[in-house]
Amino acid sequence: xxxxxxxxxxxxxxxxxxxxxxxxxxxxxxxxxxxxxxxxxxxxxxxxxxxxxxxxxxxxxxxxxxxxxxxxxxxxxxxxxxxxxxxxxxxxxxxxxxxxxxxxxxxxxxxxxxxxxxxxxxxxxxxxxxxxxxxxxxxxxxxxxxxxxxxxxxxxxxxxxxxxxxxxxxxxxxxxxxxxxxxxxxxxxxxxxxxxxxxxxxxxxxxxxxxxxxxxxxxxxxxxxxxxxxxxxxxxxxxxxxxxxxxxxxxxxxxxxxxxxxxxxxxxxxxxxxxxxxxxxxxxxxxxxxxxxxxxxxxxxxxxxxxxxxxxxxxxxxxxxxxxxxxxxxxxxxxxxxxxxxxxxxxxxxxxxxxxxxxxxxxxxxxxxxxxxxxxxxxxxxxxxxxxxxxxxxxxxxxxxxxxxxxxxxxxxx
Amino acid sequence: xxxxxxxxxxxxxxxxxxxxxxxxxxxxxxxxxxxxxxxxxxxxxxxxxxxxxxxxxxxxxxxxxxxxxxxxxxxxxxxxxxxxxxxxxxxxxxxxxxxxxxxxxxxxxxxxxxxxxxxxxxxxxxxxxxxxxxxxxxxxxxx
Lengths: 414, 143
What we know:
Shape of chain B: flat
Number of strands of chain B: 6
Radius of gyration of chain B: 19 Å
Number of helices of chain A: 20
Oligomer: heterodimer
Strand content of chain A: under 5%
Structural class of chain A: mainly alpha
Helix content of chain B: 25-40%
Order of helices and strands of chain A: HHHHHHHHHHHHHHHHHHHH
Shape of chain A: elongated
Order of helices and strands of chain B: EHHEEEEHEH
Strand order of the largest sheet of chain B: 2-5-1-6
Structural class of chain B: alpha+beta
Distance between the termini of chain B: 27 Å
Radius of gyration of chain A: 25 Å
Strand content of chain B: 25-35%
Number of helices of chain B: 4
């Protein structure tokens, strides 16, 4: 890779979202904006090695992309108000090649519009994630494909389909109305958290943790929290991700095999990161609007992060937090986690009742989670044969080979 | 990847600095910090006092360490502030470093911050185990 290419990549990571956001504001079309920006990047790859990297690369790219937009409209003879306004702006700028070098003042709201549009509920979760990583995170299609272990063509397809869906549904490039705010923000938070959880525990493949994905989700979360500082759940999501990421160094051994919470060397947890997580949770609480689902999960993660050991963990408090979480966001996975906490606080027998209830309801069918927790509880109750069979079932259900190894080892150890 | 951006200045930089209104410098630095925050990459950072009455250097050039006034008394080369950022590549760190609003004579030294994985090969040595124990102790105090 040439120096120019590397410089351009770095510039794109830092400014790409703002460039696309600015273009989307003037063209009113996110898909078109992204295409124009990519064409400008292609131009830069040809021109910068000759002319040198301009002092304000982002302004250069934006100006070139805007000219391309005008050329496109000109070809299609769509000389409307929009074109006249933009054409005037460009023509009144510095003449010739002096690409309006310092006229680069993106509007922060544009980034917020960008995030909300990329996570619009009209898109599938996969589409939201692909668009968010590509357009807001500035990742290349290849990087996204590598992170999710899918072919490049699949990611390309998802992005193209997502752009088409936005355009077909006439999704405007805007921050939603107050009436839609809550639902849309929760879609955005959900997309970011999904990117993180994929990094925290990959659903498939042979690596358990993907630091790159988790870090990208953290970065996106921090950007969002900065853009909507009065939304407690945005800060809470950052807190939750920071708490969980603080354990990364301790969660896998040198061979990449997972180390479970009980066996983790707590001295390897990142104390600075735990401090940042607590600060973010404080910011969420400071809004004075009570704790939402992310704040409750962050509070649970905080109990673990600040405990000296598994036995020294305040499990009673964790059970209470799970109960609160179950009330505002009922979900079988939350119930299962509550069961695990109950088993630590009051013993495996009461926990097994919760898990059996879940099994009777047919919850989490097809997931390895329920049989693996059930196996754990049965083992603690001395019902070894049943436990072994549950672990085997769980191992057959997981798609992650590292996870499978752990479960098979548990069954074999009984 | 975590990087530390270390701000260093020389006499030349200091002179240039003093010729500018301090509010202007504060404003430029503030805008730069804001851009780091808004990009979600800033993890921490602080300035360091350059008041010579509070600073000193411990010199190991003789048998017993000697505390002298400093820092770097002869050259007046100061390490006067730092940022810790988390980015995706070395080039991204370089791009951020080149945006620090500093005048001529200044330098930004960019160093990657080591992570536990850098020392994985030494995890079983007594020194690293002790380091780990100390960290655990600090963690308990945190709770």
